Structures are given as C-alpha cells and as structure tokens.
Amino acid sequence: MRLALPQALLLTAGICCLGNLAGCSSFPKSANSFDGSEPAMAPPMGKCHPSSSQAGDSYVVFGRRYHVLDSAIGYDERGIASWYGPNFHGKLTSSGMTYNMYAMTAASKVLPLCTWVKVSNLESDRSAIVQITDRGPFVRNRIIDLSYSAAKALGVVHNGTALVEVQAIAKPSATVPGDIRQVSKTYPAKHLHHRARLYVQVAAFTQHANAEKMRAHLILRQLGHIHISTKEVHHKTFYRVLVGPYKTVNQVDALTAKLERIGYQDTDVVIE
User: Fold this and answer.
1) Beta carbons of 153 and 126 less than 8 angstroms apart
2) Nearest to 117 by CA among 85, 152, 143, 88
3) What is the C-alpha to C-alpha distance for residues 119 and 167, in angstroms, rounded to an integer?
C-alpha cells in the first residue's frame, strides 16, 4: 500500500528546503542501495488533498488491521525510521500520486494523509519537515518511512534505519503552511545523542497482575531481561512488559522475529 506525495520543507540542523515523499520500506537495505545516478524523474506530483486523508478509516495489510487517527493533533512518537527509493521511484503511491524519491515526503501507518510532521534524528542534530503522503512502513517496529531525500537529510541512508521522533506540527493541507518553519521551532526533539536504549514492548495492561503473569511466562522463554514499566496515557496507568535493553536495531529486529514465531505479533519499540 502506498500514498501521495506533495511538497515539504527540509530542516537540516535548523535550515529547510522544499520537496516531497512517500513510502513503505519493509525491504532489505540492499533494495535501497544505488550508485547515486539519478533515475528518470517521475511525472508531475500534483498536491496532496486533505479530502483523501482517510482520517478515522481502517485498512488491512499482510493480515493486520491498521486504524488511521481521527486527528494528528498531539501526535509525538519515538521509534525507528526506514527509507525507500529507487525501486519505487516513478510508481504510483497508495494515494494514486507518483512517488518521487527526491521529494520530501513520508509514509505513516496511522497519521491522516497530508499531515505535516517534523522528524528528528535522536542521535544527531538533524531534523526535517515532511508531509505524510503514503501508508507504511509495514515492517514490524518501524514508525515512518522516508523518501531518499528525507533520509539523506536526516542521515538515515547509510545505515538504512535511525532512531527518530515524529511530531505532527500542522494539520492536513494541500500546500505548505506559511508559518511552518516558525511552528517547527516550538517542537524541540528529545535528543539522545547516541545513548539510546531500545526495548521491545510485548504488551501493555491496565492491571499490574496481568503484566506480572506475562512477565513470568516470557521468563520461561529465556528471551532476555524482562521487566515491567509504567506509563501514564490520558490519565490512565499502563503496565508495559518490556524486553531489553538493546543497543542496535538489528538486535531489536532479531528479538521481534523470535517473538513473532512464538505468537506475539503486536510488539512495539520503546526508546529511552
């Protein structure tokens, strides 16, 4: 599933430029590798129309149902970003628009289309403003898929993934909001500067006893260090069952695959 691509602003160390994106990079890193030569440019992109935002809708990919948020207001999540490029350049996105790997856009599983977000690399001082114009990535434990240009601006291309914070900074619109650069300054990222610890959240419960039962069950599976962490969401306490910490995305991916094999399909990454 893919989506639209409009214009976006790039902020690398605080400076921006316009562009577009879309994507779903649940693909091997090698699929995104290329020699730097520019492929044939895609047809005109057009604009992302808020009427196609799919807010509140749900859809199914690979047997899993995803629910699009009614609104992007307050969205601020940390997780793993990926990117996609040459294999999709010039092809239709989920919105019916044409993907341009040199445009500043991105894909999200849950944000309404045409939403403007600030993506910050938590291990550096780079950030970029992109427009959500596509659906994805549909790989486990990835929260956003970046176009080649967005990934390059954020320093994601070489490694293929990065730890990021995604903040919704403007509601869906067809054109770049006039004050978007100023607005982006009110959303400082929680930079980790290479000290991030990664955990895999297996489940979250409102009852501590249920979290303890799952923790005991997972201990028997010898998956690693398992503990319970609390988090307040909308004035409600959740007890999260976490495995970790880990230092690399590869370690997280290996654990996620193991958890899937034993029946845990809905894991999430927690970055601290």
Assistant:
1) yes
2) 143
3) 7
CA dihedral 168, 170, 175, 179 (to 10 degrees): -120
> From first to last of its 272 residues, what are the pLDDT tens digits of the chain?
443 333 333 343 333 333 333 344 333 333 344 444 444 444 446 678 888 888 889 999 988 899 999 999 999 999 999 998 888 888 877 766 778 888 889 999 999 998 999 999 988 889 999 999 889 998 888 999 999 999 999 999 999 999 999 999 999 988 888 888 888 988 887 766 557 789 999 999 999 999 999 999 999 988 889 999 999 888 899 999 999 999 899 999 999 999 999 999 889 999 98
Are 81 and 146 a contacting pair, CB within 8 Å? yes
Return the amino acid letter for 45.
M
CA distance 83 to 144: 8
